[in-house]
Amino acid sequence: MSTVQDVLAFLHIHEDTYVSGQLIAQNLGISRSAIWKAIELLRDEGHSIDAVTNKGYRLMPNLDVLDKNRLETLLGGFPVHLFDTIDSTNRFAKQLAAEGSCHGTVVVSASQSQGRGRLGREFSSPKGGLYMSIILRPRCKTEEALLVTSAAAVAVARAVEKVCNLELGIKWVNDLFFRKRKVCGILTEGVIDFEAGVLSSLVVGIGLNYSTPSAAFEANLRSVVTSLYDGPSQVPPFLDANVLVAEIVRTVVSLSDLLPDRSFLQEYRDRSLVLGNTVSVVQAKKTKTALALEIDDDAHLVVEYGDGSIESLGTGEISI
Ligand code: BTN
């Protein structure tokens, strides 16, 4: 084994305590400066190693790693299906929903090979992101169910603010932005019960770039997307990805339980990046400039075009 691996193995064995440089040096028969270099290399690789004067070094648990038991404990009852990689968590969750999985069931993956985006697009899903789909069986009218996506956008922003202390803005309909770039996309899909002819459940899919290094994004996306943290080594120590996922899921479920009340819409408006601004509305492959006037109680975006005409947009695409 190399010095770096020896140091890592030694820290692993003692991961419940701090070990001094002197103790490591004596046990491995290497110099203190070799240990220091090894620690720096291990940190560059993404290992979180705390150093405290007069106590030494300690390998911190890898809180980036998603853990099924931990997620289930944090979620206190909602079933969790966890994957290292999957084609699409939405595809799998829709299958589970059709088979009868309960309200609040969550599918989480550390990467996706065929992530689905809105309007039939692909959603790039490299490692470092948090990809999740939540099965909801909202007890509300179908029109109200359409608001789930907007509620989910508020839920993600609220959860990120609470757990990471970072502020996200919402670009109508359901993109979340961090420092002027897209950091999260949401795709809500319905599951139809064909025999009963009704919408039996919804699957809310959330793709959040959590600790994706910018190099992991495809070159054409790098100027328009970002991540909460630029690689695992930038994630603050003690921040646990499981806690963030659980907070997102809990908030999505609780807001979806309160849909008819619509009180979340005020927060949606407060976080809006479009209200009062000029936007480009893309419709039937044509782009028109408009002023974003209002987000109404159905989460429609009300815009005014240059000729004074007003339109209420229920779905679609705008750019800012
Ligand atoms: C968009 O921005 O166009 C929506 C992207 C939604 C991506 C998420 S990632 C988890 C879930 N599984 C998918 O295949 N898509 C959604």
Outline the structure in words.
By secondary structure, this protein is of the alpha+beta class. The protein has 3 domains: 3-59, Arc Repressor Mutant, subunit A (Orthogonal Bundle); 68-270, Bira Bifunctional Protein, Domain 2 (BirA Bifunctional Protein, domain 2); 278-319, SH3 type barrels (Roll), CATH 2.30.30.100. It is 30% helix and 26% strand. It contains 9 helices and 14 strands. The chain has a 7-stranded mixed sheet with strand order 3-4-5-9-8-7-6, sandwiched between helices. A hairpin with a 4-residue loop joins strand 8 and strand 9. Helix 1 crosses helix 3 and helix 7 (148-164) runs antiparallel to helix 8. The longest helix has 17 residues, at 148-164. It is elongated, with a radius of gyration of 23 Å. Biotin binds next to helix 5, strand 5, strand 8 and strand 9.
Short description:
The protein has 320 residues and is α+β, with helices and mostly antiparallel strands. It has helices at 3-13, 21-28, 32-44, 68-75, 89-98, 142-145, 148-164, 241-257, 264-270; strands spanning 49-52, 56-59, 80-83, 106-109, 129-136, 169-171, 175-178, 181-193, 198-209, 278-283, 286-295, 301-305, 310-313, 317-319. The strands form 3 sheets. Strands 3-4-5-9-8-7-6 form a 7-stranded mixed beta sheet, sandwiched between helices.
